[in-house]
Write a structure and sequence with these properties.
alpha/beta, five-stranded mixed beta sheet, 9 helices
Length: about 250
Amino acid sequence: MDAPVNVPVDDPNADTEWNDILRKHGVIPEKSPSPTPLIQEAILEARRQAHENRLEDKDLDELDELEDEEDDAFLEKYRNQRLAELATISTSSTFNQVYPVQKPEYSREVTEASNKAFVLVHLTSSLGTNVESRLLTELWREMARKFGEVKFCEMRADMCIGEYPEKNTPTILVYRDGDIKQQIITLHGFGGERTGLTDLEGVLIDVGAVKANDHRIRRSKPSEDDYVERKLRKGNKTNTSTSDDGDDWD
């Protein structure tokens, strides 16, 4: 039986005729494609998306300021969209404040009220030293003013549920159609004392209380780096799948 032959390879990644022959016969693996085209494509896609969505977070005043820069028909489309959104919000904004709740009225003010709108309840701490609970009380007021179609309520946890653990406060209960749809124990999952309006707005989006593209919610747009990373991940998955198919060569 012939002994195996050691084939000399100076640089398996070099583009040489000798390496092409070795790759053809499976002696060395195929050279990975250059990521440069994927990066360039991702950057172009990021710029295209940013250009198309450049007016998504603009309010009516900001749109008016762009009259000399944007196409009239394009601006009018977004104006009409904002006016329709404002009309809907105005019609449905019936709360706009935080409602303190007592146990005897809990069923009416929370459970039954959730048949008409989303109701969020902040079960507060009984201790003035609970920083997270005090923070959520302040955020609750801002959220109530901003999202008037959602009912925000507040009640001391131990008065709502007997012997409710202090360590579980603050607690957020999300009601809709008479049922609890989500329960959030403390603000640790949001960053504790660093919790902000954006975190609570995310809760409203997750449960369907507001739409993800609601103009009242301003989120950072994906950067070019985000698009590049996403494109490269997708490209790597494709390359892995392709190389696996080639393992059957003999």
